[in-house]
Write a structure and sequence with these properties.
This protein has 13 helices and 25 strands. The protein has 421 residues and is α+β, with helices and mostly antiparallel strands. Strand 10 and strand 11 form a beta hairpin. Bound molecules: adenosine monophosphate and glycine.
Length: 421
């Protein structure tokens, strides 16, 4: 197939990598891709969505996959579909499940999907009043997209009120904060669940666990994710059932009733509290680094799953997963997540180690290529992925691979998957 992938992260790299391992040959284009996706396909530089759709028509692209949320919230799927193109992702309206936390919370409430008690408001008085009714910690969220920074877990009432004031005045997040959610803090363990949806049907992927904090033991600031593993033993059949019956089914049925059938990846951020799955949030895309560990666990065709999901034919296929486990360890640049870093040359040891060759790989993210040399460009640079028959084996292999990658300032967590070990 001729495939176009939007995005530049390890997530997009891992999708393309999985497709390259299929029997069928694919020609892959990336917009914009990164310094390593050139090895899997061709990087483009066409930022305008209409121009990109014209390119896709001219090139006879058969399937477009959108990695990040921003183009989805901007409505790229509607633009491509209007041109008769096949694209995997939600419409602009359905992408509101991630694009607006107010839309998402009100949707959850309307369809009785369990979520944290909350108020959504643009009124500072109402927000303060609700804050006073909660015990600490208190969660304050900006309505719109804030690049993963729009959630404040306040340890005191005063801290919550400062966050509310700064959001509502537009000081902290501009227009994205002009409405806020104030909600109760949920104490439990967090899961990432992914349902690939075609509007009616869905395929639930193995549950993953992300590590959002920068430092070992879940310390330090929030990041996009410093590592992940799947499947997690923290989910049993009963919990999968509850997520299907109480979250995914009502969401797909509800979105149809709203006139915005959900196609694409429904990423459910779940907090398990006393064995009950409570929905923290929806995203309308794959998680990163979760995607990097889920793609190598799929034994059936990844491209066919996306194609069938984009053409309302998911019921025709059976998606299969390996019995193995996958662990991904993120390697970030020195200043992540606070700021950018000076590009640093990446040196990867020649591997003559059979176990590393066979059971590990690297998914490249924040990298650039200059004169055949790969540079770490700041942010999350790459993910070392290990596969194994147990989580421990997969983890040990991922860290073996980490030991072979060198660049100035490299930063990793050394305790990925600790909750499962
Ligand atoms: P969100 O962007 O809504 O996923 O929030 C970012 C992170 O904040 C989540 O992954 C959780 O770790 C945390 N969080 C969000 N809402 C709550 C809540 N109500 N209770 C506890 N933690 C939360
Ligand atoms: N790893 C979490 C996310 O992609 O939002």
């Amino acid at each position: 197939m001729k495939i176009l992938i939007l995005g530049s992260g390890g997530r997009e790299y891992s999708i393309a990598r999985a497709m390259k391992n299929e029997k069928e040959e694919h020609e892959i284009f990336f917009q914009p891709g990164n310094g390593a996706t050139n090895n899997l396909g061709k990087n483009l530089n066409i930022k305008d969505y209409n121009e990109l759709a014209t390119f896709a028509k001219q090139e006879k692209i058969e399937l477009t996959i959108v990695g990040p949320e921003a183009p989805l919230v901007d409505g790229i799927v509607d633009i491509f579909k209007a041109q008769g193109l096949t694209i995997f992702g939600p419409s602009k309206e359905a992408a509101q499940l991630e694009g607006s936390k107010v839309y998402m919370k009100n949707f959850l409430a309307k369809y009785n999907i369990p979520t944290a008690a909350y108020i959504e408001t643009a009124s500072i008085d109402a927000a303060f009043k609700f804050t006073d009714s909660l015990s600490v910690p208190i969660v304050v969220k900006a309505d719109g997209l804030c690049g993963g920074k729009g959630v404040i877990i306040a340890q005191t009432h005063d801290e919550a009120k400062v966050a509310i004031s700064e959001m509502l005045s537009g000081k902290s997040f501009g227009d994205a904060g002009l409405k806020v959610i104030v909600e109760e803090f949920l104490d439990g363990y967090e899961l990432s669940m992914f349902a690939v949806c075609d509007g009616d049907d869905y395929i639930l992927l193995p549950a993953a666990q992300d590590h959002k904090k920068l430092l070992n033991g879940d310390g330090g600031p929030n990041t996009g994710g410093m590592g992940a593993y799947a499947p997690t033993p923290l989910v049993d059949d009963a919990l999968y059932r509850k997520v299907k019956d109480r979250v995914i089914r009502p969401t797909l049925d509800g979105m149809k009733k709203e006139g915005a059938p959900f196609e694409g990846v429904l990423f459910i951020g779940i907090m398990v509290v006393n064995g009950e799955p409570i929905t923290l949030e929806f995203n309308v895309r794959f998680g990163d680094p979760e995607c990097e560990i889920l793609m190598p666990l799929m034994t059936s065709s990844v491209s066919d799953m996306f194609l069938k999901a984009s053409t309302k034919r998911l019921s025709e296929i059976k998606v299969e997963f390996s019995k193995q486990f996958a662990v991904g360890v993120v390697m970030a640049s020195g200043n992540y997540p606070y700021g950018s870093s000076i590009p640093a040359e990446i040196v990867v040891d020649e591997s003559h180690h059979e176990e590393i060759d066979k059971f590990t790989h690297i998914a490249y993210a924040g990298v650039s290529m200059d004169n055949d040399t790969l540079y770490a460009d700041g942010g999350r640079v790459l993910v070392c992925v290990g596969l194994g028959d147990s989580i421990k084996q997969a983890r040990d292999r991922a860290y073996l691979r980490c030991g072979q990658v060198h660049f100035v300032g490299k930063k990793i967590r050394t305790d990925i998957a600790y909750q499962a070990l």
